[in-house]
Structure formats: C-alpha cells, structure tokens
Write a structure and sequence with these properties.
With 211 residues, the chain is α+β, with helices and mostly antiparallel strands. The chain has 5 helices and 9 strands, in the order H-H-E-E-E-H-E-H-E-H-E-E-E-E.
C-alpha cells in the first residue's frame, strides 16, 4: 500500500470516527430534549386541550331556521348529513354540527381543569341507527327512549349522550347552559342537546356567532 496510501487510509478512518461522534452527540441532545418535554407533560396536555378547543368554527356566523335546525345542514335531512359537514369533538371519534362540537369541546376541556371527566357515548346518529334504536328501545312518546326516526336531535348533530359519573353529572347540570347544552330529554340524564345563545333573525329563525 505504501506510506502515502497508509496515511490516506488512516485519515479516512479518522474522518469516519469524527462523523460517528457527531451523530452520537446529536442523538444525545435529542434524547435530552425529549426527556425535558416529558417532564412538562402536564403542561403540554393542558396546552393541547386548549388548542383543540379552538376549532375552525371560530368567528363564523351560523343560523337556525324556525324549527331550530341549522340552515347549513337542513338540505341534507335528519340523519343524512355527510361526515364532511360535521366537526369532530376534541380528540374523540365523535362528530356534531360545527358550533355544537366546538362548545362541547370547550365544556369538556374546562371540566377537566376542574378535575371532572366528561365522556361521550353517542353523538351524530344516522337515520338507519335511529330506526334500529327505536326498534330496540321504543319511542320516547310511548314510554321508550328513542325519538321518532327522522326527528332526533342526534340526527342534526345537535345532541350528545355523555358518559357522566355523579360528580360529572352535577358539574354539567350546573355549567352546561354556559356552553349552550341542556338536558333536553327529561328521562335521560345522559342526553344533552345544544341550544345556542342567539338573537332573533328574519323569518322566525335565529342567528349567532361563534367567538
């Protein structure tokens, strides 16, 4: 190989060692940063919750027709609303009409800050599911627990069934109205419908803005 070739080989090996050391240092720094972030996990969770509560509905104006149905959804029909026309509630798998989803997300986030957990068992309900529920549980008007298919608040994305323990139920009963949520089915403590604060609009409808 000769002296010159040997020196070149040594220089090449030294360069590779330096490169490996640099990569290792980068990994160490990244690991340290990750550990620091983990130590602030509670703060991060709080920030995430606040960020999630600020949805795309903010600043927009919405309206309800004379029957209290969202005018941007009425053309679809009860229980026939496409997923793309609804908004996700926080980080859950549930969807509701935009303002209803935004309000429920804020309510859940604020409850968590008070040490109260609010879960969701049902939200928007397609027409076929309304029919099945009426068959299994009977119509509300006849002593059952289901609305007549095609008339359900769930079918407009305007109601959610909440998973509430005694503490959470007391919290929602006390605070739900602040977010526009009311227990609209007297025999169902878990059923909460969205009735937004609004001003009277034309044609007997209502208009309101999401801040």
């Amino acid at each position: 190989m000769g002296i010159e070739g040997l020196n070149n080989r040594i220089a090449d090996i030294q360069s590779r060692i330096i490169a490996l050391q640099t990569q290792q240092a980068g990994r160490t720094t990244q690991s340290s940063t990750t550990s620091s972030t983990g130590a602030a996990g509670d703060d991060f969770a709080s920030y995430l919750s606040d960020a999630v509560s600020q949805t795309s509905t903010s600043g927009r104006t919405y309206s309800l027709n004379g029957k209290g149905i969202p005018t941007d959804l009425e053309a679809y029909g009860n229980g026939k609303i496409p997923a793309s026309a609804l908004e996700q509630v926080g980080t859950t798998r549930h969807k509701l009409w935009g303002p209803a989803a935004e309000a429920l997300t804020r309510m859940m986030s604020d409850a968590e800050k008070d040490g109260v957990h609010i879960g969701i068992t049902d939200s928007y309900r397609p027409y076929t599911e309304q029919v099945d529920l009426a068959r299994r549980k009977g119509l509300y008007s006849q002593g059952g627990l289901a609305a007549k298919p095609g008339t359900s608040e769930h079918g407009w994305g305007m109601a959610a069934d909440l998973d509430l323990n005694a503490k959470a139920l007391a919290w929602v009963r006390e605070n739900g109205a602040k977010y526009g949520y009311f227990n609209t089915a007297s025999r169902e403590s878990w059923h909460w419908g969205f009735k937004p604060n609004s001003v009277q609009g034309s044609g007997g409808g209502q208009q309101f803005s999401v801040q």
